Amino acid sequence: MKKLLTLILVLGLVPMASAGFMLSDKQQVDVSIDPVNGITLHSLDAVSTPWMVFVVPAEAPLVYEFHQFGDKNKAEPFGIVPGADLGLSDPAVYLMEFAVASTVPGFLKPGPYMTFRLGIDGVKYQAEAPADPAKLVGRIMLADLNTMEVFATAYAVPEPATMLLLGLGGLFLRRK
User: Fold this and answer.
1) Residue 168: enclosing H or E segment and its boundaries?
2) Residue 50 DSSP one-character state
3) Is it true that the peptide bond before 57 is cis, omega within 30 degrees of 0?
4) Which position among 39, 59, 60, 163 has the lowest Cβ density within 10 Å, counted as fewest Cβ atoms?
């Protein structure tokens, strides 16, 4: 029986629960990165803490979706700011502040709060930076509003089929 349980856990047939972490305003959160949907912020309690989202490159369109619709939800763009102002090496970053909040007691529930992705077709998201920086299309970073410490990053890279089409297009152009 032990061998079977170990095999199930090793093969990932049973999802492991994540302990999450705490933001500076005491909200317990966890993050998941899905290859298709991007990065999702999950609240592990019913507390609301505002957080920041950094997008690189700054011109990349950010698409976001609220999963809980409180009457005090916030999505406030600050626009493009120098990366150095945020302690980042990027020359420019698109910056937004978000919060999921409600004045109705008990409205907020543990679970998904927000999903973020780039409005770019033909990309997939991963938790690790690509080995070849030239393959990086963009990245989304979530940061604690009070400390500006980045607690999650989703890297957008071209899908393999997209890379194949780009390569074939390059060959076709070169042939002409």
Assistant:
1) helix 160-175
2) -
3) yes
4) 59
Of 157, 57, 66, nearest to 115 (Cα)?
66
Give the amino acid at 77. Answer: P
For the stretch 81-140, pLDDT in tens is 999 999 999 999 999 999 999 999 889 999 999 999 999 999 999 999 999 989 999 999
Q: How is residue 98 written in tokens?
A: 């978000």
Q: Render 100-130 in DSSP notation, one character per residue.
A: ---SSTT---SEEEEEEEES-TTEEEESS--
Cβ-count burial 84-101 (b if 16+ within 10 Å, e if not): eebebebebbbbbebbbb
pLDDT (tens digit per residue) in 12-71:
433 333 457 888 888 899 999 999 999 999 999 988 889 999 999 999 999 999 999 999
**Predicted local confidence at residue 176, as pLDDT:** 60
How many Å apart are CA 47 and CA 20, to the nearest integer?
14
CA 49 to chain CA centroid, nearest Å: 17
Element (H, E) at 3: helix 2-11
Q: CB within 8 A of 16, min separation 6: which ones?
A: 9
User: What are the C-alpha distances in Å from 163 to residues 138, 155, 168?
Assistant: 15, 16, 9
